[in-house]
Design a protein that fits this description.
With about 210 residues, this protein is α/β, with parallel strands linked by helices. It has a single domain (about 5-200), classed as Rossmann fold (3-Layer(aba) Sandwich), CATH 3.40.50. The protein is built from 10 helices and 5 strands. Strands 2-3-1-4-5 form a 5-stranded parallel sheet, with helices on both faces. Helix 2 (about 30-40) crosses helix 5 and helix 3 (about 45-55) packs antiparallel against helix 5.
Length: about 210
Amino acid sequence: MLRIGLTGGIASGKSTVADMFVELGAALVDTDAVARQVVARGEPALDEVRQTFGDTVIDDRGELDRAALRKIVFSDADRRRELEAILHPRIRERTLALLDRARGPYAIAAVPLLVETGFAQHVARVLVVDCSVDIQLERLMRRDQIDRNAAEAAIGAQAGRAARLAAADDVIDTGGTQASTRRQVENLHASYLELARNCRARQRRAE
C-alpha cells in the first residue's frame, strides 16, 4: 500500500489534517497513539522509563505521568535523547506493523518526529503540515494552557520549520481558514489516489 508520511511542528494542525484524510477514506496510523500504547501499564518500555527517570514520572495508578516527564525532557536535551532511545525503536516497529495491516486506498502515517527519526525512508512521500511559528505558539499556549517560554521550549525540542520543509514532497498550509485547509487536503487526496492506482498497476505488471 502507498504510504504517506504526515508530519509538522507541534500545534501546526496535524491531527486536523489527518482526520480530514480519514474522512476521505485514507487509512491512518498515528504514532502519537502508538507512543501511548508502548508506555501503557505492563509494557516493558514503561519499566525502562521508570528505571531511567525515576518514580516521579509514574502516577498513583502506576501509569506514566506525561506532564512530569515532559518537564524533564523539554529542558534537557540529553535526557530527551535517553527517552527517545527507549521509545523510538518500539514506536517505529509497531507503526510499521500497523501500516502493513492497514486497509484503504493508501495509508497516512502521522509521525510528529518524522524528520528527526529518519522515518521518511519508510514512506513514499512526506507531507508537511505547516504554519508560522507565531501561529504555532498561539495555538500551543491556548491548547495546553502554558506560558510562552514553555511553548517555545516545546517547539524548540523539534526539528526547525526549515528542516521539515526541506524534507517535504507536499505541503499543506494551515495558517488560513479551515475551508482552505480542507481544499488542500482534497486536492492532495485526489493526487494520492492516482499515485496509489499507478503503484498497484506497476505491482501487477511486476507479478
